Amino acid sequence: MPRYSPYRQGKRFMPLIKYLRQETGYNISYVSALGYRNFLSAVESADADFVFANPVVYLILHKTRGAYPLAIATEPDFTGGPPRSQYRGVILARADRGISSIADLKGKVIAVGSEMAVAGHLAPQAVCLQHGLDITTDATVAVCPTQEHVIDRLRRGRADGGFVRENIWQEVAVDNPGIQPVEYTTMFPGWCVCALGDTDRAVAETLKETLLGLDYRMKEHGQVLVPTGFRGFIEIGDEEYTSVRELMAAVGVPY
User: Fold this and answer.
1) β-pairing verdict for 109-112 and 140-143
2) What is the largest CA-CA distance in the chain?
3) Does 255 score more than 80 pLDDT?
4) Residues 118, 42: Cα–Cα separation, whole Å
5) Intra-chain end-to-end CA distance of the chain, in Å
6) Quick check: helix, strand or coil at residue 52?
7) CATH code for 6-83+188-250?
């Protein structure tokens, strides 16, 4: 799933793909899409066996293709704690637009990610609703192909506010003093590698064990994990995505 632009996406993930090919002995092909909106069609056209996706896409594939999670990625904790498998969204605003609360976003232009993005759309939308702001009627929403584009719109002054993942914001915060956090969402389970229902179970188990064996503290593993921004993978079950199902129901997104 395209977390970043195609160039950055390839740079970040190809070392991991090459490592998985080497360790499993399988000819693993890398397929993505230009944006969230056409990702599901890319999955179908590629006849994919495995998908690395955010919680919303996982839940869609669980329902339509019998997908089940193999492993969830862990990422750095920006407070200095151990790697975490959960993440949250942040509501940002330009410092020069007089926005210090969610209420101040009324009538403003808000740049957001796809409706398939938990931290870049749905979770911040739910937080706004809890504060009495319905972004679909009380603001102008600019949907962007990636959350990098959200940051770019804010940087260029083409949006007053924006929704992104916390880690995407942390990567660029120091270079963007003119953008400030307004509010954070609660935590949600992160992106998982899932197998589709008709994928060979033995192949799926091999891939799962290879992923779970990665440890960024080992030099060889660190070389393939650090570019992705991950620290490793841990096991996860479908039940851990209950909070995302509840979020989608709260904002009225069918799946």
Assistant:
1) parallel
2) 56
3) no
4) 20
5) 17
6) strand
7) 3.40.190.10
Instruction: Quick: pLDDT tens for 133-169.
Output: 999 999 999 999 888 899 999 999 999 999 999 988 9
Q: Which residues contact 212 (CB under 8 A, 6 or more apart)?
A: 71, 233, 234, 235
227-235 mean pLDDT: 94
Give the mean model confidence (pLDDT) for residues 59-73. 97
Domains 6-83+188-250 and 89-184 share a fold: yes
Per-residue pLDDT at 97: 95
Token duo for residue 153:
């719109």
Question: What Å distances lie between residue 182 and 80, 81, 109, 129, 147, CA to CA?
Answer: 22, 23, 15, 15, 17
Beta-bridged to residue 180, according to DSSP, are 93
Domain spans in the chain, listed from the N-terminal domain onward: 6-83+188-250, 89-184
Q: What is the DSSP letter of 118?
A: I
CA separation for the pair 186, 214 (Å, rounded): 28
Q: What pLDDT was estimated at residue 219?
A: 94
* Superfamily of the domain at 89-184: Periplasmic binding protein-like II (3.40.190.10)
Integer CA distances (angstroms), 133 to 99, 121, 139, in order:
14, 14, 8
Question: pTM of the prediction?
Answer: 0.86
**Eight-state DSSP code of residue 135:** H
Average pLDDT of the residues of the chain? 94
Residue type, 242: T
